Amino acid sequence: MAAVEYPTFTFETTAEEVADAFAEQIRGKNVLITGTSVNGIGNETARVIAKYANLVILTGHNEERLKLAEEAIKGSLPTANTRTLIIDLSSLASVRKAAAEASAYPEPIHVLIHNAAAGLTPFTLTVDGYEAQMATGHLASFLLTKLLAPKLLAAKTAEFTPRVVWVSSSIHVLESVNFELLKTPDATKYTPIMAYAHVKSATVLTAGELGRRSKGAILGYTVHPGVISTNINQAKDAIPVLQAVGVLDAEGKPDSTNYKWKTIPQGAATTVAAAFDPRISATPGAYLDDSKVAEAAAHSTDPATAAKLWTATEEIVGEKFEF
């Protein structure tokens, strides 16, 4: 039998093109994705996967926005089989409640996609006392992965290994995780950009460690979606931060001189590739850019740092992974 030839993806590749290429890998799968609001890459990711998947579970903390997200997908794709799940990632209690609900679903979960992020917010503490970006982007995603691990493992077959995908960012190269601030947030040491970098480094470290800890039973991946104009970087608090680093110009519009911007369909492409491209099964923990494996910063791929972060996060969330 001849080997299947898959396309080579580029900067311009769209999520729909990736989904079409991996239609057979997506067919029959159940996928849970966080952060699916309209005008975000999560919604587009969910939409294109829903073309072929058995079930796509959409999550969000606001019931009205979650309903709009589902309506947008079904308006474009009436045959989509979707289910909504309320989850507030700034609250560990809410994560536990949502995980319990999802764990009661009759279906296994083949792919878990951590797309949600807090955005470039001013210093804020969550109800649990942790910095909001780290709590949403790392602590909540770690806890949700832990609690849904049995559902993921139930999807494993001889032909398929479940995957967990984190939407990271190339900004992870700026700095590794600050362990002091992870446990004890400090407003005097906080800047939105560096907090964002800490979180994105944490995702790369966690993805690699997931594969090692599970001995390959669950594969973890991270992606750089690109520079994209979405609802997160159009938020009021984010605009001055992005202006300060030059991503947005003085009028708050995308700087196309120094940055090459992707559309939302292009920005969602790499997530779909990380979730379903069979070619990356041999590289667990890989970091992807432009829908293919790329090189992550050394501080975010160091196994010793990853193990330290894993243990520290288990202590914070009060849950120990057991495979």
Automatic annotation (TrEMBL):
Gene3D superfamilies: NAD(P)-binding Rossmann-like Domain. InterPro entries: NAD(P)-bd_dom_sf, SDR_fam. One of its GO terms (molecular function) is oxidoreductase activity. Keywords: Oxidoreductase. SUPFAM superfamilies: NAD(P)-binding Rossmann-fold domains (SSF51735). Belongs to the short-chain dehydrogenases/reductases (SDR) family. This is Short-chain dehydrogenase/reductase family protein.
